[in-house]
Amino acid sequence: STVLVNTLTDTLFxxxxxxxxxxxVTVHGVIDAAEHYEIVDVEIVPSEVMVMATPGxxxxxxxxxxxxxxxxxxxxxxxxxxxxxxxxxxxxxPSVVNVYVSVSPLKQKRLxxxxxxxxxxxxxxxxxxxxxxxxxxxxxxxxxxxxQSADFKVELDYNELFLDDKKKGVFKISESPSAVxxxxxxxxxxxx
Length: 192
What we know:
This protein is mainly beta. It is built from no helices and 15 strands. The radius of gyration is 30 Å and the shape is elongated.
């Protein structure tokens, strides 16, 4: 039999190369507002984190995701903390971010918007046609005052008037802000 009389400690030095990069954070999951509400902003603090890993790992990354989260039917502004996804090979600092979600109720708004008459023959009298239409739409309270008539473009295209035998022109919205929903036009069409 062998008896261990003494042990000596030793230190082993490893030269491990690491790369680091500051990468943006994205929320991984579903964040939805309740009916008649809209998410107007999602702020992540900090918005970027330092990632350290062996060479080649960091250079292939474009973002760091949070753990999967589901937040539905939000009616009020809310905040929560989320851990960041890591494969254990990398170090992420900080490893937790705060997420702030701004929610705003939807309101109905009406605006009068001028009509652009497109492709009408030169000299064609459009004075008997409506110069304006009324748009009704939903917009968040947050964006309510920001949305103006100039943000919309409504057209009536002469080339589309006689495609069928009904001789009716349908007003089309060719430009509108992304902040508006469920746009209705009045009048929706005009007869010839």
